[in-house]
Amino acid sequence: EWKKLPVLKVGRKVLIKTDILEMFMEANEGRDLRDRGNVKAVTRTAAN
Question: Pick from 1, 40, 47, 45: which is nearest to 22 by CA?
Answer without folding.
Answer: 47
